[in-house]
C-alpha cells in the first residue's frame, strides 16, 4: 500500500476549506430558526383581535398577582393590628390617635406651661365596647375645660357583667383628627391588658394635656371642642403568647 503525506501547508489549507464549507450550513440553520420563530409569531397573532386578547390576558394576570399580594399583606397586618396600630398612630397622629410626643423628649414638665391668654378648650369623653365584650364601660364625667399646656385628669369606669374573668384591651382616638398631634397623654390605660374578674368594677384614669403649640397653630383657631373616645375590645393570647383583640362589632356603652 502506498502512503502519501501532505505537506503541513496543505493541511492548513484543508482546514480553512472545511470551515468555509461549514459556514453556509450554520447560516442556513440560523435562517431556519428565524423563519420558524417568525412563523410561530404570525400563527399566534394571526389578527389584531387575537393580539389584543393576548395583551388583555397578560394584563389580567398581572392584576391578579397584585391583588393576591395585597390580600396576603392585609392578612398579615390583621394579625399584628393592635401593636402596629399603636406604633404608627402614636408616632404620626393618624386616625385621631394622640401622640406621645413628650415621652422621648425629656421631662414633660418643661412643656406644661398653661397659655393663660388662650380660651379654655372643652374636652368631652365618649366610650364604646365590642359586642363580644360583656362589659359596661362609661366615662365618669361628661367634659372638662382646660387651657393649652394645662394638665387634666379624667376617669372611666369598667364593669365586668359576666360570670367569668375577661381580658380587655382599649384603643382610643381624638376628634377632630387634626388635633391629635397636640393631644399628649401622661398616664393612660390604653393598649394594655386589663383583666377584670367576674362582676368586678374598676376606675381607669386618663392624665393628659393639650400641647401649648396648639395655641400657635393657625389651623386650630376655630376648634373649641375636642372629644376623647375609648373603645374596649375583648382580647386573648394567641398561640405565640401575643395579646390580640377580637373586634366583632361595636356597642355603645
UniProtKB/TrEMBL annotation:
GO CC term, one of those recorded: mitochondrial inner membrane
Signal peptide per UniProt: none
Molecular functions per Gene Ontology: copper ion binding
Subcellular location(s) per record: Mitochondrion inner membrane
Record InterPro entries: CtaG/Cox11_dom_sf, Cyt_c_oxidase_assmbl_CtaG
Membrane topology: Single-pass membrane protein
Principal location: mitochondrion
Transmembrane segments: 63-82
Annotated keywords: Membrane, Transmembrane, Transmembrane helix
Matches recorded under Gene3D superfamilies: Ctag/Cox11
Task of the protein: Exerts its effect at some terminal stage of cytochrome c oxidase synthesis, probably by being involved in the insertion of the copper B into subunit I.
UniProt-listed PANTHER family: CYTOCHROME C OXIDASE ASSEMBLY PROTEIN COX11, MITOCHONDRIAL-RELATED, CYTOCHROME C OXIDASE ASSEMBLY PROTEIN COX11-RELATED
Protein's name in the database: Cytochrome c oxidase assembly protein COX11, mitochondrial
Naturally occurring in which organism (per UniProt): Exophiala oligosperma
Amino acid at each position: 500500500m502506498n502512503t502519501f503525506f501532505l505537506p503541513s501547508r496543505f493541511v492548513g489549507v484543508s482546514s480553512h476549506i472545511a470551515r468555509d464549507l461549514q459556514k453556509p450550513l450554520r447560516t442556513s440553520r440560523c435562517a431556519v430558526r428565524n423563519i420558524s420563530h417568525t412563523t410561530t409569531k404570525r400563527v399566534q397573532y394571526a389578527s389584531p383581535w387575537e393580539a389584543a386578547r393576548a395583551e388583555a390576558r397578560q394584563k389580567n394576570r398581572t392584576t391578579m398577582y397584585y391583588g393576591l399580594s395585597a390580600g396576603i399583606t392585609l392578612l398579615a397586618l390583621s394579625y399584628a393590628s393592635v401593636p402596629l396600630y399603636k406604633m404608627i398612630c402614636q408616632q404620626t397622629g393618624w386616625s385621631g390617635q394622640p401622640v406621645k410626643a413628650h415621652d422621648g423628649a425629656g421631662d414633660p414638665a418643661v412643656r406644661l406651661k398653661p397659655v393663660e391668654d388662650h380660651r379654655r378648650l372643652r374636652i368631652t369623653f365618649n366610650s364604646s365596647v365590642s359586642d363580644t365584650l360583656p362589659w359596661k364601660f362609661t366615662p365618669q364625667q361628661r367634659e372638662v375645660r382646660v387651657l393649652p399646656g394645662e394638665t387634666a385628669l379624667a376617669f372611666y369606669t369598667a364593669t365586668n357583667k359576666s360570670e367569668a374573668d375577661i381580658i380587655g384591651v382599649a384603643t382610643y382616638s381624638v376628634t377632630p383628627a387634626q388635633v391629635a398631634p397636640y393631644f399628649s397623654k401622661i398616664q393612660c390605660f390604653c393598649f394594655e391588658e386589663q383583666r377584670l374578674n367576674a362582676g368586678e368594677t374598676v376606675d381607669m384614669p386618663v392624665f393628659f394635656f393639650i400641647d401649648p403649640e396648639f395655641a400657635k397653630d393657625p389651623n386650630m383657631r376655630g376648634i373649641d371642642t375636642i372629644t376623647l373616645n375609648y373603645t374596649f375590645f375583648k382580647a386573648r393570647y394567641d398561640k405565640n403568647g401575643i395579646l390580640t383583640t377580637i373586634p366583632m362589632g361595636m356597642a355603645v356603652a
